[in-house]
Amino acid sequence: MRRIIIGISGASGSAYGYMALQALRAIGGVETHLCISEAARRTIELEMDMQPDGFEALADVVHRDDDLAAAISSGSFITDGMLVIPCSMKSASGIAYSLNDNLLTRAADVCLKEKRKLVLVVRETPLHLGHLRTLSRLAEIGAVILPPIPAMYAAPQSVDDIIAHTVGKALDQFGIPNELFKRWRTPD
Length: 188
Prior knowledge:
Largest sheet: 6 strands, parallel
Order of helices and strands: EHEHHEEHHEHEH
Oligomer: single chain
């Protein structure tokens, strides 16, 4: 069985993380380890009219963000990598500079040091030069930067279609087959 860490930070876009957890549960064969930051807990309540325990119910294992002794804080705990969805610029900065002051940033740092896949669905706009430098640093040290940008060729009909496109692209980075979005095909 594959094992992926899902980090949810306090950036706007909690629905991306929720759909990622739903998709992984539906696809099966992937053990999910969830870490929700304190800021994300508040954002979930504000954006989704639900509590974080709704997210937690979709995960196989839930880790507290203040538990730096959790299994996912160690490189000896084998995973396929980590998806931070959404990823705030605060979390991105913490990861870029190895601050490791919470479990989310520590687990991401572990993925980088162990050369495991780290995908960051960075949710911020507009980006100033400091943001861009942070993202550049993350790319240089091995992270995949995957902002939630919809593909209009898929002709999205709903917000869920737009979210599904980003989630599908993120799962593609881990080689997880999915049919969450309409893929490009050669025009007739």
